[in-house]
Amino acid sequence: MLGNFITSVLILVLGYAYPAFECFKTIEKNKVEIHELRFWCQYWIIVGALRIFESFGDLFLSWLPMYGEAKLALFIYLWYPKIKGTSHIYDTILKPFVAKYETDIDRSLMEFRAKAWDLAIYYWQNCTEIGQAKFLQMLEYIASQSKRGTIHPKSEKQDETTHRSSSPTIDHKDFYGARAKLRRSNKGD
């Protein structure tokens, strides 16, 4: 449940908010002359912003009758060629708001990006340590199974209990110590 929430938040921020903000900066700093490109970039900026607010607002508004139909009507209003509501919403609501808080948003996104990278590295290191430990545990298990199946020429009639007692005991909490014990016991054979 928590993993799904974290994934949803990351998709929301990295999939919608960040691209929409970068698109906003590109449009405003470069002053794109192509009217159609500007219109669709504005559309996607608004869709990104709506998607962000929708993830939280759906909890409170989704119970309203015709809520889904109202969202659909809003999207049609945004791109319908005769109305082109994108320009109206962008110029009157979104542009003044983002322009006012642009530096704060930029700083927050940079901090979030740094924290997300640190978190990714932390989890990568933990996963590799756990993977290495499990791999060593598997090798130790295979080595102990292969020792059980070998026949020593000196005593072919060893019973299983004495053969088991001659194999090293593996302490699963200390994998490196167990590996060293296994190496020492193999040198003695």
UniProtKB/TrEMBL annotation:
What topology does the record note for this protein and the membrane? Multi-pass membrane protein
Coiled-coil intervals, chain numbering: none
Q: Where is the composition biased (Basic and acidic residues)?
A: 153-163
The entry's cellular-component GO terms read: membrane
Identify the domain of life.
Eukaryota
Cell compartments where the protein resides: Membrane
InterPro entries linked: TB2_DP1_HVA22 (IPR004345)
Query: Which Pfam families does its entry note?
Result: TB2_DP1_HVA22 (PF03134)
Q: Which parts of the sequence are annotated with region: Disordered? A: 150-175
Q: Which family does it belong to?
A: Belongs to the DP1 family.
UniProt name for this protein: HVA22-like protein
What gene is behind this protein? LOC101268048
